[in-house]
Amino acid sequence: MKYSKNNISTGSLLNNYFVKNRINKAELCRDLNRNGMAVTNFLKNNTIQTNALIDICYALKHNFFQDMANLLPKDFSVDKTLNASNENSINQILEENRVLKIQNEVLMRVRG
Questions:
Q1: C-alpha angle with apex 21: 31 to 67, nearest 5 degrees?
Q2: Please, which residues have CB within 8 angstroms of residue 3's CB and are 6 or more apart in sequence?
Q3: Whole-model pTM above 0.70?
Q4: pLDDT per residue over 58-80, tens digit each?
C-alpha cells in the first residue's frame, strides 16, 4: 500500500509507547477483547482504524490522537471549541457574569 509522504506511522507511535511504558500486550489484548495477532498487527502496520485506536486510548488511558496532533505543524488550525474543558467554560461564564454585574451597577448609579 502506498502511503502519503506526510503519513504518521501509528504502528511506530504505538510500538514506541509500548516499549517506553512496558505495556503488557497480553493484558492489553484482554482489555480490548482481541487476540494477540490483532495487537501485533497494530504495532506492525503504518495505519490503524480510528475506532481501534480509540479503544487502545481508553484501555491505556493515553491520548494517541494528541500524540499524532503534536507531530503536525504548529501552524495548522484547530477547532478551539473542541479543546475547551467544562471547567474553562464555567470559569469564562463566571467571569462574564462578574463583568456584567459591575456594568449593571455602574448603569444603575448613572441613572440613579
A1: 85
A2: 46, 47
A3: no
A4: 999 999 999 999 999 999 998 87
